[in-house]
Each structure stands twice: as C-alpha cells, then as structure tokens.
Specification:
Length: 269
C-alpha cells in the first residue's frame, strides 16, 4: 500500500473542499472495499476522505410512507433498528445477512450502493422498494441509479447522503450466499404494492446474477396476475448476459432466480 493523506472532515462542505483540492482523492465510507483494493495495489489514491464523522450522514427516520436511512448508517444498525423492523422487516432481514459481524459493523448503506458490486444485497432493496437516492447535488430515482458493473449515476465528487425507501404492503428478500463471503450468488427481493401504485403492484429485483441489479419483468407480470409461487411455474429468464464464474455458471444463476423468487413469494405469503 502506498502512502496517502487521511482526512476526517466533520461537514459535507469540508469533505467537498478536500475532494476539490486533491488531484486524486477518494471518499471512504466503511472502507470494506476501498481498503482491500488499496492493499492489493489496485488503487492508490493520494487522499482518503473519511466520511465517518459527518453526523448528518447517519441515522434512520420514518415519515409517512417513507423510511430514510443515512448513507453512513451501518448494516448492523439497519438490522437492529426497531423502526426498520416495524416499517420494512425485509430490509432489516437483508441487512442482517450481509457479510459477517465485522462487515456489518463497518460497512454502510451509502458505501455499498455507491460501489455497486454486482453481488451486493442493498441494490436489490433500492430497486425492490422504489427508493430514491439523495445526494449532495440531487435526488436520483433508484431505477436510474445503478448503471453497470461497479458503475452508478453519481457524478465526480457527488456524495450519497441518504436513501429514501418507500414502505410497501409487504416484502421479502431471499438469497443464495457464497458460503465464504456471504455475497449473493443470486438474491431476489419481492415487494407488493397497492393496486394502481406507480411502478406496478409487484416488484421483483434481482442481484448477484448480472453485471448489476435488474428487475425480472416476466416474473412481475406473472405475479401481478396471480401472486403465488405457482404463478412462476414455467416462467424463466434467459441465461444470456448473466454472470458466470468459478462459483456458478450463468445457467445455474438463471435457475436460481426462479427458485429464490418462489421462496420470496412464499415468504411474503
């Protein structure tokens, strides 16, 4: 790991100034991706700008039909939050299944979605719960936030400040985890919404299977007509374009999507 300067601003304004004044600066949330990448020599920023002391980036609030989670809120805090468990139990359960205790107590929701690892869990919740991603510059609809492999709609120097999740009628998340990392080989988030709700009455968001999270349109159509596991019998997604690696082939991941979607629907019940 090369030498770098470490900064701990206490406001977003200070963080922005540090970034603008650096030729090669990187924001750090929980550091669960950035630090290992630096250790491997794959990234060598001159300045690390730690966002951990910025109080306005932390916390969970519920207002009406919206659950807001600050960008620096850890996975463990989301999993343990009574507000999250009451409003969206599936989100608390998802957070509780991320990684191991170390990752859950250091990793943050803002860092996770900004990194956009193809096997991360939170992107499925962002899409499945019709969330908005609020930044220092604007509000980005969750459907528009994840662009491609490790790529998001964030501009240079833009910081995620919170994620606003819409509260569904009910939801469930089921994943097939890598036994070592607990990353999702495939994860499926299913949510139900009142009839006539903007964006449809059913959402099925898939993570781990492709370059980034996506909606399973064929599954949504089948479930909108008949919300039951049996409605997905014979409904499949093509393996073309899905991830294939030492852990699972594209064909296996395509099969898993159907299996996990049925389990999620049954869990929603």
């Amino acid at each position: 790991m090369r030498d770098f300067s470490f900064h701990q601003p206490e406001t977003l304004e200070q963080a922005a100034q540090l970034f603008e004044g650096s030729d090669d600066g990187r924001f750090m949330a929980g550091g669960q991706t950035l630090i290992p990448v630096m250790k491997q020599g794959l990234s060598a920023p001159e300045d690390i700008i730690d966002l951990g002391r910025i109080e306005q980036l932390n916390g969970i609030t519920v207002g009406g039909t919206t659950l807001s989670v600050g960008a620096m809120t850890t996975h463990a805090a989301v999993a343990a939050s009574a507000q999250v468990r009451d409003a969206i139990p599936a989100l608390a359960a998802l957070a509780g299944e991320i990684g191991d205790p170390h990752v859950r107590n250091r990793g943050t929701i803002g860092g996770s979605i900004a990194n956009n690892d193809p096997a991360a869990d939170y992107p499925a919740a962002v899409i499945g719960l019709k969330a908005d991603v609020v930044t220092t510059a604007r509000t980005i609809a969750g459907d528009d936030f994840f662009v491609d492999l490790f790529e998001t709609a964030l501009d240079e120097g833009e910081i995620v400040t919170r994620v606003d999740f819409r509260v569904p009628e009910t939801a469930a998340y089921v994943k097939f985890p890598n036994p070592a990392s607990r990353y999702a080989l495939v994860g499926v988030f299913v949510s139900c919404w009142p009839e006539g709700n903007e964006g449809g009455s059913v959402r099925v968001a898939v993570t781990g299977a492709g370059p980034c999270v996506f909606r399973a349109d064929a599954f949504e159509e089948a479930l909108a007509a008949n919300f039951s596991p049996a409605a997905l019998d014979g409904v499949t997604l093509p393996a073309d374009g899905l991830n294939s690696d030492i852990h699972a082939s594209a064909e296996y991941r395509a099969h898993l999507i159907g299996v996990l979607a049925k389990r999620a629907v049954a869990a929603v019940g």
